[in-house]
Amino acid sequence: MQMRMTAGMFMLALAGAVPAQDFGDTPYVQTPQNVVDAMLKTAKVTARDYVIDLGSGDGRLVITAAKQHGARGFGVDLDKRLVQLANNNARKAGVADRAKFYARDLFETDLSPASVITIYLLPEVNLMARSKFLALAPGTRIVSHDYGIGDWLPDLEYEMDAPGKPVGRSQKSKVLYWVVPDLVAGRWVWQVASAGKPRTVELALKQNYQKLEATAKLDGRTVPVERATLTGRMIEVTMTLPEHGRVTFSGQRINQAVEGEMRAADNKSAGKGETVPWSAVRVEIQDAAHVIAPPPVIREFGADGQ
Ligand SMILES: C[S@@+](CC[C@H](N)C(=O)[O-])C[C@H]1O[C@@H](n2cnc3c(N)ncnc32)[C@H](O)[C@@H]1O
Hints:
By secondary structure, the protein is an alpha+beta fold. The protein is built from six helices and 18 strands. It folds into two domains: 4-180, Rossmann fold, CATH 3.40.50.150; 186-289, Lipocalin, CATH 2.40.128. A nine-stranded antiparallel beta sheet has the order 12-11-10-9-17-16-15-14-13. The chain has a seven-stranded mixed beta sheet with strand order 4-3-2-5-6-8-7. A two-stranded antiparallel sheet has the order 1-18. Helix 3 links the parallel strand 2 (50-54) and strand 3 (72-77). Residues 1-26 and 300-306 have low confidence and may be disordered. The structure holds S-adenosylmethionine (SAM).
């Protein structure tokens, strides 16, 4: 039987778990350092990144991103004492110029500078922030400790040992990772040369979050689509065309066009190893399912194994 846990119960669990660090009513639990390291590694944080931690506690995520990966960024927290502690920790770590902390509500924070968002928040808070996350530039990475974002399934999720974790009996943590998807639903059209003749490929894409459902036609006849993925702005579609064999089209959307390359997907395909430029045009725009009908905010959640 699956256990159910309300947000209130979760808050009590969090607040009760850290009596040695009583920062008041606000639930505060540190992410164990090995989980912090794993989160930043999963998001592939580098010196080019701007990291924003929502509910930054003692600042460990942004401080580690600055110290270990050369990134810049800031954290926000409702608790002024935690913000002061985080700024002191940044000074002690020698990264105060690149890691800053502000007493601010995450819902009143401009997230647009972020290339990476980190969160360890109540599942309900994640869900409330979902529309803010989906409005970020496509390609922005989000990494969460333990909790999901409603029905927006992560691109990657794994469990790891979390020795010393102040909550839960398992001493395990989950790391969940998303890339904010572009909006690519609709009908895309381009031409491929076949025996010296141009032939028309039409690709219909339906989208729900980053998940794509694709059907394709060559000169009006259905051809099998093996795989269609969306990672940020990058569309990748593998299909079988009668005279080319399995081919992969990959490219990035720029307005109503996509620019990239077409390559043979395996050694049996014609022109094996060959890569040629690919461009397509969107002739009909559709809304993604998650844009048309954002699911309602739910008040109760299953306990994510904690
Ligand atoms: C579970 S702790 C995570 C701390 C830190 N990010 C870490 O992983 O070690 C959640 C933090 O979020 C803060 N918080 C909760 N709701 C917030 C909000 N609406 N705006 C800003 N901070 C918030 C709390 O004060 C708490 O410090």
